[in-house]
């Protein structure tokens, strides 16, 4: 059964987005990009709830610079992999680490793969309070207001029917040793499960460490963790319990985003080393 929620502005109250700061505020950056795409007739994603959240949260979104397709295309890549897993494991637990204002559950609902799952939504208390206020209550959701690095969330996850862990837009903000420890613990606690995350290239990480300005009034938080596509594949050899690693291509978008992710370009080592990457890990049973 597809639960076809129809988001309306009448069901929400205007919210001041400045209550979020630091890394938590980056969820407004991704929301800006995703919702702007969803509003376009030729947009890279259909995401009615993103549009509703965007319109309900008052914020200086343009301080993030001009919107682009990047986060919409990333969301589609995560949706595709999650839906594939849920098709084989319809009662699985999906763990959304640092979920922010993502609206993946409702997009998966419209794909017809989310009826029997349990969705673990994890983020810091201010973000979770916004989600509770602006998104519909749902008996499939287990909301956990805590850091993804507070591993007590693992004790709440029912892994009987499989586990798919997403870390969308999270790991780049963590120290490398914390990333390794998180993946290692996930592999140990959820054998047979999967984990998916995106990474930035090393050149971009270095830029953020020096102060990357998206506009004259916004500097991104530091992003100390970087990973190339090939380094992601090497995690199967480096981290105990990781049985396989896959490089997941970003869907192609319009214009420049169509050209940049033209598959033959990936055969050029310079391009492959310097593009963003998405990695899907399979944990050993």
UniProtKB/TrEMBL annotation:
UniProt xrefs under InterPro entries: Ppm1/Ppm2/Tcmp (IPR007213), SAM-dependent_MTases_sf (IPR029063), TcmP-like (IPR016874)
Transcription regulation listed as a keyword: no
Gene Ontology MF terms in the entry: methyltransferase activity
UniProtKB keywords: Methyltransferase, Transferase
Entry keyword Transferase: yes
Gene3D superfamilies according to UniProt: Vaccinia Virus protein VP39 (3.40.50.150)
GO BP term, example: methylation
Coiled-coil blocks: none
Record-linked Pfam families: LCM
PANTHER family: S-ADENOSYL-L-METHIONINE-DEPENDENT METHYLTRANSFERASE YKTD-RELATED, S-ADENOSYL-L-METHIONINE-DEPENDENT METHYLTRANSFERASES SUPERFAMILY PROTEIN
Record-given protein name: O-methyltransferase OMT
Organism the protein comes from: Mycolicibacterium litorale
